[in-house]
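INFO  loader      accepted 1 record
INFO  loader      residues=747
INFO  predictor   begin
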Amino acid sequence: MARRRTALLTLTALLGTALAGLPAGPAAADEVEQIRNGTFDSTTDPWWTTPNVTAGLSDGRLCADVPGGTANRWDAAVGQNDITLVKGETYRFSFTADGSPEGHAVRALVGLAAAPYDTWFEVSPQLSVSGDTYSYTFTSPVDTTQGQVAFQAGGSADGWRLCMDDVSLLGGVPPEVYQPDTGPRVRVNQVAYLPAGPKNATLVTDATSKLPWQLKDGSGATVAHGWTVPRGVDASSGQNVHSIDFGAWRKAGQGYTLVADGQTSRPFDIGTGAYEQLRLDSVKYYYTQRSGIAIRDDLRPGYGRAAGHVGVAPNQGDTDVPCQPGVCDYRLDVSGGWYDAGDHGKYVVNGGIATWELLSTYERELLARTGEPERLRDGTLAVPESGNKVPDILDEARWELEFLLKMQVPDGQPLAGMAHHKIHDEQWTGLPLLPSEDPQKRELHPPSTQATLNLAATAAQAARLYRPYDKAFAARALTAARTAWAAALAHPDLYASDSDGTGGGTYADSDATDEFYWAAAELYLTTGEKQFADHVLNSPVHMADIFGSLGFDWARTAAAGRLDLATVPSALPGRDKVRRSVVQGADRYLATLKAQPYGMPYAPDGNRYDWGSSHQVLNNAVVLATAYDITGAAKYRDGAVQSMDYILGRNALNISYVTGYGEVSSHNQHSRWYAHELDPGLPNPPKGTLAGGANSGIQDPYAQSKLTGCVGQFCYIDDIQSWSTNETAINWNAALARMASFVADQG
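INFO  predictor   done
INFO  writer      dumping C-alpha cells
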C-alpha cells in the first residue's frame, strides 16, 4: 500500500534525552570522539560559519554574533563537516551553550553536509544566559564520511550572541532504553463513559486469577464493585491483562476512579457533556488549519496568525501558482483550503476524503434516527461565517471545497477537467515555521485520476447538501463533478508518482477502481441518473468485501461509496443487499473488538499498526455506527461507543490521543505552527486534535531512535519530531469528528 510520505529532509529529528527502542542493537566496543576541537582551547578551527556570522574565542568558548533579520534558522549557522557516522552505532551528542539576551533557541543537528542535507538528529533547546549542558543519544541510520554537526541560530528579528563549548559526538556509547511513563496499570477512558452505555477498562497485571475491583465516585466512596476477567497476554501490547466491566453503574458524575490490584486509574466522568464539546472541538480544528485567511484570535484565543500563502512576502503565494517544470504552461489561483497536516501542503486526495467525512457527519445528523442536526447549526463553531444562516460545519467544509474546485484543470488546456493531485513547496522546510513565513516556491503537481474522482465525489455530495442554502454553489459543484467524472473516464490511469515526495507527501495510489465506485455512488445519490447507477452496479468493488482490518482511508475509498449508498435514500436496485453488506462488515469489527482486551475494532495483520492507526480505529467504528443506524441493534451502538475508549486513554500507553481530553493527552503533535515544544511562543495543537497514533513502521528517525523493536500499541511517542507516529492530519480529525458526533447523539 502506498503511504503518505512525510520525510522532512531538513527536519527529520530525534529530539530527546534518551535513546530508544525496545530492544536496541549492540553498541560498538570502543567509544570514539568524532568532533575535532570541541573544547575551543586555542582556536576555532575546523569550525565554519555562514558568511553573515562573526565568531571567535571568548574565555575558552566559541562565541558567535548572530545577525537579526534572517528568515530561517539555517540562514545563520556554525558547524563542522567531515564527520564519520556508522550505521546502527549509538552516539551521544552533547554540548554546553548559552544565549544573550535570553529567549533564543538554537537548532543543533547531526546531518548530511551535502545535498539533499538529510537530518538524522536534531534538537532545539531554549538557551539561558547562564549556560546549560545538553546531552542526547541517537542511533545513526546511515554510513557516511560526509556528516555534519551544525548549530543553526537564524530566524530572529534581532541580533544575539551564541556561545558554546565542550561539543562532543561520542560514538560507541551504550544505547539507552526508552521507557514510556504509562502511569497507573488500570487503563480507562480518561474522558467519559455514557450513563447508558458500555463501561470497560483494562488492568495490566501479572496475576492470572481474577481480582476484585472497586468503582469510586468523586468523593472517594465505593459505589460499585466486582471481579476482573483474566484475558492472558494481549498481542497488541505484549502485556498480561484483565478486563473490567462496570457498565451496570449508570449514575452521571465527575471524578470517578477505578481501583484494582492496588492501582487507581486516572479520573473520568460519566456523562455526555464531554462528547458534546468534542463534537465541536474536533471540527473547530479546521479553522486553524485554514490557508489563505488570517486566523482571528478572538475566535481562537492563542491561535491567531497572519494569513498564509496569499502572495505577501516572504510567501510566494498560492494565488498565482505554476506547475512543476514540464507539467503545464499555465498558472492557477489555488489559494484557500486547509493545510493537510503538519506541513504547508494541500492535497486533493486527502482533502477529498476529509471533506466527505465532515459532510457525511452532517448528512448522518439529517438522516439517522438519533441524528441531531441542530447541534451543528449556524453559530456552533465560531467561524468567520457564523451568522450567515448556514450550518457552520457546511461553512467549514466549503472552505476546502472551494479549493478543490480551483484545482481543476481549466477548459482549453490538455487534461481539462482533471484535478491536479497536490500543491506544495518546491523543497521541504524545517519547523517551526508559520504559514505566513514560508519562503518556498509553490508548485502544482500533475493531475491524477484519483484526485479527479475525489473532486467528483465530494462536489457531487456537496451539490445535494448545499442546495437548501446556496443553489448557485450547489449547481456549480455538480457541474464540476460531472466534468471531473467525464475527464476521469477519458484518463482512467493517470496515477501520482511514488517518487514525487520532495517538499510534500506523495499520496501515491496505483488503483482507481475504488475512487470510480465512490464518485459514481455520490453522483447517483445526487442525480438519480441511470449512467451512474450502472457504474455502481457494474463496479468490481460493489458488494465485494471492502471492510478489512485497516479500514477505509484516502487510498481505500470504496467504503465511502458503500456507506452512503446504504444510508442516503435512493432507488438503487439491490439496496437491501448493500445495507446487509455494511452490517456484515460491522459484525466482523464487533468480533474483533470483543477479542481485543483493549476493546477496539482494530487488529491489523501481524499486529502491524498502520500509519494513522488512531483514525483507522475510528473509521472501523464508523462502520459499527452505520450498522446501528441501519438496524437499530444496540450491540452495534455499544461497539461504536466503546471504540472511543481506546482513543481516549484505554490503551497500552494510558494516553488520550486527543489534545486537551483526558488527564494525560497527546499535545506535541508534529506541526510547523503548533510547535510549542520547539518555540514557547507558539501554541500546542488546539483542543480536539487527534494524533496519528501507534505506527509499527516508525518511519521517522526520532521514532526509530526510541521505539525500535516496539510491539503494536507501543509504537508511538508524543514528540513533535515523530512525524510517522504523531502527526496531525485533516482526514484523521474528520474521523474523530464523525465518531464524537455519533457518541454525543447517543446521550
